[in-house]
Amino acid sequence: MTLRVTWRASASLVGTVLKWMTVPLLLPLGVALYYGDGGIAAFVTTIALSFTVGAALERLGDPADLGAREGFLMVAATWLAVSIVGAIPYLVAAHGLPGIAAATSPGSTLGSPVNALFETMSGFTTTGATVMGDISFDQHSHGILLWRQLTQWLGGMGIVVLAVAILPELSVGGAQLMDAEAPGPSLEKLTPRIAETARALWLAYAGITAVEIVLLYGLHHGGFAPNMGLYNAVAHGFTTMATGGFSPEARSIEAFAGVVQWVIVPFMLLAGTNFALIWQALTGDTDALFGDSEFRFYTGVLATVTALIAGLLFTGPTLDVVVGPIAGELESSLRHAAFQAVSIVTTTGYASMDFAEWGAAGQYVLFIAIFLGGSAGSTGGAVKMVRWLVILKSLKRELFTTVHPEAVRPVRLGGRALDETAIRGIYAFTAVYFVLFVAGTIFVAVDVTRIPETLSALEVMSAVAATLGNVGPGFGAVGPMGFYEFLPASTKLAMVGLMWIGRLEILPVLVLLTRAYWTS
Amino acid sequence: MTLRVTWRASASLVGTVLKWMTVPLLLPLGVALYYGDGGIAAFVTTIALSFTVGAALERLGDPADLGAREGFLMVAATWLAVSIVGAIPYLVAAHGLPGIAAATSPGSTLGSPVNALFETMSGFTTTGATVMGDISFDQHSHGILLWRQLTQWLGGMGIVVLAVAILPELSVGGAQLMDAEAPGPSLEKLTPRIAETARALWLAYAGITAVEIVLLYGLHHGGFAPNMGLYNAVAHGFTTMATGGFSPEARSIEAFAGVVQWVIVPFMLLAGTNFALIWQALTGDTDALFGDSEFRFYTGVLATVTALIAGLLFTGPTLDVVVGPIAGELESSLRHAAFQAVSIVTTTGYASMDFAEWGAAGQYVLFIAIFLGGSAGSTGGAVKMVRWLVILKSLKRELFTTVHPEAVRPVRLGGRALDETAIRGIYAFTAVYFVLFVAGTIFVAVDVTRIPETLSALEVMSAVAATLGNVGPGFGAVGPMGFYEFLPASTKLAMVGLMWIGRLEILPVLVLLTRAYWTS
Ligand SMILES: [K+]
Ligand SMILES: [K+]
Fold it and tell me: Which InterPro entries match (chains A, B) (predicted)?
């Protein structure tokens, strides 16, 4: 039995990523120096460690040996490695170092290694589920809370590059579909080389983030959003484009004026859009975006879910939240409906209110939305729009061929016939997705019987779906105004695994568990 | 737009079925005459009506015009027609006729047309969900309660004929898979003509039912089961082979001695087995049965679920039911585990105890089991074993081709490569199944907010899964010791639809809703 995987090549590239992570770490370090409220030691330690470990790993092998197989290993290992190293600032800030006092006040939950790993994995996978009970500057320094936001922005950028430039090379993640699109946002058509593609996407991602920050901060200057200062504008810019959902405000976007919520909606919508199509639109080819069948389906779904929720909120029982009453108020109903529909469908996970206050109908609509997901090639998670679209079209075909058993009718997407292998792959992905959801639900449902808190089946299922789909908040105790800290450590570790495997389109992680991957 | 369906041919065959239904109706009529506790008028009326309507329908068209398309319509219309006509005894018994007193005591819930239709559809689809709050001879006559049992036996026989002889002709219901089996229990191999096949299956079905009745009544005679008299033996024989689950005892099989539970287990196992294979085994070819990959998978699943539940019951909190304590008792743990595992997986729905008393782990295992289902070609419902087996094999293949993108590797079942179209059809079926489950859950969850009772998410989901999968009891209020009567009429009607569509392998009913079916 010979090992057929040049794991040293994968390790070397993980090392390169760790080495480069020292650059973004300079930002929270700068913030820590500026505010002087703690965290300098935490970031200096992490920078030194990340650089040393990264350089050591880099020397293990030659990245030129990277084939498809090594690619799977590298992708899976990268998200694990950055989540472990990225947890160090939380731990150092909570416990201090010999001769250096802790930066975080003693009540913080981030001093536990499991909690710190959960929060970092939730960051880098752009999930946004949190174990922080008290999100405030009283407890955490400005540097630490910005690092939390930044992990999502970095994770989101990684995901865009992964989804558009790397996974298609490995024939994973709906890549076959993107190729089938006409005019398709496939790798070859976009730019000739991965590095160039990555740079283009990086530019679009950073540019849109900058525009959002400027707009949010502009609202503050115009007097429309008193609490949306520069820090908050940057912090939310970081987590919108990543469909991340972390907020330094304990009550998420409910803490801000209605106009802030309206401004964030189109950016969440963009974040859930295929970045290759955004890049094409930015370079003049808007037809590529508006003619894309996934984009049209995606916006149709968003409009439908928004309309459903708006109707329920408008006619439902009177609800009153921080930014005003809802029932019977048209703007307010529409705003919260659009905000929550777009936030959950794109898997951002921001909240403009605690939807646990909604009636049963609204909650079930939102629960289904947890499974929908953004577009392929976006930072959005969950099952993703293109898969649902293909499944719907394939089911329609199945009904037709039941009546006409001899008919040969391909499934068409964007005018082209889809390869049957791609359709099969989509069914397989969706099946594995729900198998993981069910297995996770059973594990968590049984595991939480060990703690005093009682969770309803809906709370358990929503928590599992929200971590596997990188959505973030579930319902009730694990909802947008709740947190995951009270769960048993074993449940939290399982969810770390769900966020990780869900973020990486499942298969690249699952194949690592097969013997065929290592030896055949 | 021309109609392309010769609906008169379908209607004619439905008429023939209604005409023939008068024959089994003679049995409860005889029982009513024997016991003299009411129901004679109910059955005489129904016999007259069924014969008249049947004869009228029969004249509408020529059954020789029946093609595949007319087959779908005939199958769907048959189950609807017998459920409507079969509800008449309940209604007449509850309300009486001019000059004839009611046979059922006034407190009965079966006087409501929605409830009567629910109970009859639940019978003919072998679901076993009940709206009868008080199942006792104090309230209902022996004839009426036997008719309830008999609807299941007739429905089960119809399903066997449908699954083995009719649906394969329409290329529905895993028929492609049965053809792929070697040695396959396909229609052609079994007997040359549908009528002969149907007769063979009928014989096996009736013969095994008779053996079970004799065994159960034998236990009574031997003094092992005082309350398993002839009436009860026949009543339970009728609903075991049908995987029906109705019982004239309010506490289901919990009402009987442990030995009765042990005797029923192998008959439920047989009821969930492909009847074509049973027929082959009975005629000497036991290798066909024991070498069949679905049968091996099926028994493996049953053994696994039994072992899991037995472990949980043995080590769990102390439970005490009618037939004795469980925790720490080996025989008792094994018996209840085997009984409930086999009962739920085969979709029989009998209960040896209220599993709402189990811990979370046991309940979740059982909840998953609601979706498993019996074998193709059996009276069992839900998704069915062969589909899960093919999905598992296909997912394994998907992992392999992720590592080896260029590899061509067919999915094998019983030594033969499966057609990719068949695999796709299985994914499509399973997807539609879960779409219906989710849509049903949302509808019911919202609908039940109109009644004073509060249902948990698990109760709602289990009720929807138990009706769609023709399992019968869900959890808690709709569990084996509960009933469906308190639900809103709209929910009960939706469940009538779920039982109907679920029983007929979904697609034959869904195609009726497409335009292609009627006109293209
Ligand atoms: K998120
Ligand atoms: K049943």
Answer: Cat_transpt (IPR003445), TrkH (IPR004772)
- pLDDT 10s digits, A78-120: 999 999 999 999 999 999 888 888 877 777 888 899 999 999 9
Tens of pLDDT, residue by residue over A332-356, are 899 999 999 999 999 999 999 888 7
Q: Helix H segments across A272-328?
A: 275-282, 286-290, 293-315
Could you tell me if residue B250 is inside a domain?
Answer: yes
Check: CB of residue A310 under 8 Å from CB of residue A334.
yes
- Between CA A117 and CA B117 the distance in angstroms is 56
Could you tell me the residue range of the domain that residue B451 belongs to?
180-482
> Is B134 inside a domain boundary?
no
Which of the residue ranges A28-42, A64-78, B105-119, B455-469 would you say has the lowest mean pLDDT?
A: A64-78
Q: Determine, yes or no, domain membership for B43.
A: no
Q: Considering only alpha carbons, which residue of chain B is nearest residue A364?
A: B442
By Cβ distance, the residue of B360, B428, B456 closest to A395 is B428
Q: Token match 């198998």: residue?
A: A435
**In b/e form, how buried is each residue of B328-343, taking b as 16+ CB within 10 angstroms?**
ebeebbbbbbbbbbbb
Phi and psi angles of residue A325, each rounded to the nearest 5 degrees, phi first: -70, 165
Neighbours of ion ligand 1 (CB under 5 A): A 128, 245, 347, 349, 472
Query: Do the Cβ atoms of B442 and A368 come within 8 Å?
Result: yes
**One-letter amino acid for residue A375 of the chain:** S
Q: Residue B494 domain-assigned? A: no
Please, which pLDDT band fits residue B216 given cuts at 50, 70 and 90? very high
Domain count, chain B: 1
Does the distance separating the beta carbons of B403 and A449 come in below 8 Å? Answer: no
Burial class (CB in 10 A: 0-12, 13-18, 19+), B291: middle
Asked whether residue B442 carries a pLDDT value surpassing 60, the answer given is: yes
Closest by alpha carbon to B146, among B21, B239, B76?
Answer: B239
Q: Which two tokens stand for residue A247?
A: 């907020």
